[in-house]
Design goal:
Pfam family, one: DUF429
CATH topology: Nucleotidyltransferase, domain 5
Helix content: 40-55%
Strand content: 5-15%
Oligomer: single chain
CATH class: Alpha Beta
CATH architecture: 2-Layer Sandwich
Protein name: DUF429 domain-containing protein
Distance between the termini: 5 Å
Largest sheet: 6 strands, mixed
Radius of gyration: 18 Å
Strand order of the largest sheet: 5-4-1-2-3-6
InterPro entries: DUF429
């Protein structure tokens, strides 16, 4: 099995892609690119068995309805225009709320936060994939699955915050150390130095690990009640088994 992880950014320079080749003995980081362009991203989704992308695959349905109504001049006036509850009802996806419950912190909101620019790029990538005959299933059952590295790291008992940015190099190195200790079967090889140099690289690796969890049935999926919403808004795959289970006997048949 070949899984890939994409740490998507609005610009190529901060976009990273990691490929992990799996055998019964573990995973080998086969390639890592920091500065991936759209061509590389499209090729990745077309060649890997499962790809985890750190970016929302859709927008909240209430938020989209709100924008359309406002654009048409048909917006119903809310009872409390400054009410926090009203605003939150617009900007959080169903999967954001579920993930918040699972890990104790909400993901960034695609509707009203700085990740909106990369989500626009992600939407364009989905359109390009559809043009090429590979339509994305936003519930995560196809090749592409939405992931959230911070959630994966927390569920696996690893540091999940404080390692991003050039000022946090020490924390980033500690995260890599703890990941290697927790997963001695994961071989970073020649790319270990890159993982210690930029958080984009390690987030791409975590995304590829989470893609493996999703591929072997060890990550959350939308239930029947959430399936229709997830098909539009996207769904975050959060690991629900220990990191070591990615290579346990029950998963080896899928290598």
């Amino acid at each position: 099995m070949l899984t890939a992880g994409i740490d998507l950014a609005a610009e190529d320079s901060n976009t990273a892609v990691a490929w992990i080749r799996w055998t019964a003995k573990g995973g080998m980081l086969e390639n890592l690119i920091v500065g991936a362009d759209d061509t590389e991203l499209l090729h990745t989704v077309s060649t890997a068995d499962k790809v985890g992308i750190d970016c929302p695959l859709g927008w909240p349905v209430p938020f989209v309805d709100f924008l359309v109504s406002h654009h048409r001049g048909e917006l119903a006036v809310a009872a409390d225009l400054s009410g926090r509850a009203w605003r939150r009802s617009l900007v959080w996806r169903r999967t954001d709320k579920v993930t918040h419950t699972l890990i104790g912190r909400p993901p960034l909101t695609v509707a009203a936060d700085r990740i909106a620019h990369m989500a626009m790029r992600c939407a364009a990538l989905q359109a390009r994939l559809a043009e090429d005959g590979q339509r994305v299933d936003r519930t995560g059952t196809g090749t592409l699955v939405e992931v959230y590295p911070a959630a994966s790291l927390k569920k696996w008992g690893l540091p999940y915050r404080g390692y991003k940015g050039s000022r946090n190099g020490t924390a980033l190195g500690e995260l890599v150390d703890k990941l290697i200790t927790a997963a001695p079967w994961l071989h970073l090889g020649a790319f270990e130095r890159e993982c210690r140099s930029t958080d984009h690289a390690i987030d791409a690796v975590v995304a590829a690990l989470t893609a493996r969890a999703a591929a072997v049935g060890q990550a959350t999926r939308p239930g029947p009640a959430d399936l229709a919403t997830a098909a539009v808004e996207g769904w975050i795959a959060v690991p629900n088994e220990p990191l070591a289970s990615l290579i346990d006997r029950s998963a080896r048949r899928t290598t």
